[in-house]
Structure formats: structure tokens, C-alpha cells
Amino acid sequence: MSLLTKFNLAMVAVFSLAMVPAGWISHALLQKSARTQVIQNARIMMETAMAVRGYTISQVKPLLNAQLAEKFLPQTVPAYSATEVFNALRKSYPEYEYKEATLNPSNPRDRTTDWEADVVNEFRRDPARTEFIGERQTPQGRSLFLSHPIQITDPKCLSCHSTPEEAPPSLIREYGPSNGFGWKLNEIIGAQIVSVPMSVPVSMANQALGTLLATLAGVFVVTLLVLNLLLRFAVTGPLTRLAAMADEASRGNLAVANFAATGTDEVAVLAGSFNRMKISLQKAMAMLDEG
Predict the structure, then answer these.
(1) Which of 147, 164, 197 is the last residue of a domain?
(2) Cα angle vertex 62, ends 56, 67, to 5°?
(3) Average pLDDT over residues 204-216
(4) Cα–Cα distances in Å, from 218 out to 145, 204, 211, 213, 222?
(5) How many other C-beta atoms lie within 10 A of the C-beta of residue 154?
(6) Is position 3 within any domain?
(7) Which of 135, 167, 197 is the last residue of a domain?
(8) pLDDT per residue over 3-60, tens digit each?
(9) Which residues have a Cβ under 8 Å from the Cβ of 236 and sit 6 or more positions away?
């Protein structure tokens, strides 16, 4: 086995061993980074929903209040507007889901499921809490969610949710007088929840890891090729020629030319020693011939 082959095998073995802990550590860091990125995306979407809610309350609802006595217009409801805008946003981000989960909503689609009720109650137990991030098991696998509390801070919201008598008649005709009432000022009545499958950050991390490992492998291959060229030029090439000259000299052919070597590295020192040995052998053979 040639010296260059041994060197290449050693380099491949070292690289392979180094890639195991590097890959493991990188995978853990990339998983954490991808999860953070997904949560940040969810926060941006949540802020978008909050902006839509504020716009609906301050600018859309006042324009349509006069029509509510005759016909219920869901576009005046902040939760409806935010949900519809988010549904439009899902065309570009289908993995993300948004819901304004409410314990006692007028619209049945906003009613909390069991796990959503647990999230709302978490905020009700700790009113100072402004964000809750968690994971849950679903039939499709693990899911990551980000939630913010929905708290009644604007007295205008109670015009539709305090009592059936104070609510617009069109609202009663649409949803009935049994649900969505009894809300109180400063009460936490629900939670905004953005959910995304854990497969999204996992896929992002795996893709980033694959790119990283492929890049490292590419850098290793290029580095190994460059080192091979340098070794062939500076070490194995001269050693091969020197070995051939030594073989000729061992066969009695001392007429071979001296090995031309410059510099002070180990190969140059070995070449100089070989040249001196060859000259010494030539002198010794000449003395024997004269004797």
C-alpha cells in the first residue's frame, strides 16, 4: 500500500470520526434554531391578527354599526376578521393554523376544544402571563403552538357580549341568545393560538443539517485533493524517484545522476544524504579497482 493511499485512508477515517460528534451537535443546535424561527414566524402572524382585530374595532365596525340592527355582518367581529385574514395567509403558509379559541363564543367555530380550554385556563390562573408556548400530541404527530390571551379591555366589546338584551338583534337572530354572553371587563375569555406541526422545524433542521454536512464533505474532498497534489509534488514524487535511483545504485549502477533537491526539508536532507552515499560508493569502488 502506497504512502499516499495510507494518508488518504487516515484522513477519511479522521474526518468520518469527527463528523459523528459534529453532526450530533449541529443537529441539536439546528433543531433549536428552527424551533425558534418557527415560533418567531408564529409571533409575526399573531401580531398580524392583532392588527386586524384593532383595525376592525376602530375602523370597520363603526361604519357598519347602523346596519347591524337589520342584518348581522360578521366582518364587524374582530375574531372573524382576524381568522379570515389568517386563512388567506395560509395559502402561502399552509402549515400554520390560527384560532381564536373562546370558552363561551357566539360563533360555534370559535369554541375551545379540550386542550385549547386548558390553554385558556392557564392564562386565567395567571393573568400576568402574556404568552404560552407548548407542544401537544395530535393524530398527525407532535404539534407546536404559540398562544396569547384574549382579554376584554375595551368596553365596546361588551355591547355584543354582556347580555342578550343589549346585543344587536341581528346577532341574536344569527347565533341565538344562549351563547357568547356574560363576558366581563378585564376577563380573559379565550386565547389566540397559532399551531404548526413539529415536522416543520424538524424538516427545516434536517435540510439545514444536510446542507451543512454536504458543504463540509465538499470542503473535505477539495482539501484532500489539494493535499494529495502537494504531497505528490513535495513528498511522494521525489521519494519515488529517489527510491528508483537507490534501486539502480544497489544493482551496481553508480552512474546515475545525483538527485537534484533544493531546500532544507526532510526530502532534501534525504536526497543530499543519498548523493553523498553514492559519491562515497563511487570513490570506494574506484579505490578497489586501483588496488
Answers:
(1) 197
(2) 110
(3) 91
(4) 37, 21, 10, 8, 6
(5) 13
(6) no
(7) 197
(8) 778 888 888 898 889 888 988 999 899 999 999 999 999 999 889 888 998 888 888 8
(9) 2, 3, 4
The three grid cell numbers given for residue 94, joined into one nine-digit string: 399552509
**At which residue does the C-alpha cell 549502477 appear?**
253
HSE (CB half, 13 Å, CA atoms) of 105?
20
Q: Domain with 95 in it: what CATH number? A: 3.30.450
With a CB cutoff of 8 Å and minimum separation 6, the contacts of 75 are 56, 60, 64, 81
Whose grid coordinates read 474532498? Answer: 221
pLDDT at 219 over 80: yes
Judge whether 150 and 188 are in contact, CB under 8 Å.
Answer: yes
Domain count, the chain: 2
CA distance 143 to 153: 30
What is residue 42's three-state secondary structure?
helix
Cell of 120: 385558556
Query: Which residues have a Cβ under 8 Å from the Cβ of 194 and sit 6 or more positions away?
Result: 42, 45, 46, 96, 97, 98, 145, 146, 147
Cβ proximity of 48 and 89 under 8 Å: yes
Residues above pLDDT 70, as percent of the chain: 91
Q: Does the residue 8 lie in any domain?
A: no
What's the domain range around 271? 207-290
**Helices (H), ranges, the chain:** 3-55, 61-64, 78-89, 114-125, 158-161, 169-175, 199-231, 237-250, 266-290
Place of cell 526532510: 266
Q: What is the pLDDT of residues 154-165, one digit of tens each?
A: 787 777 888 888
CA angle 93, 208, 88 (to 5 degrees): 5
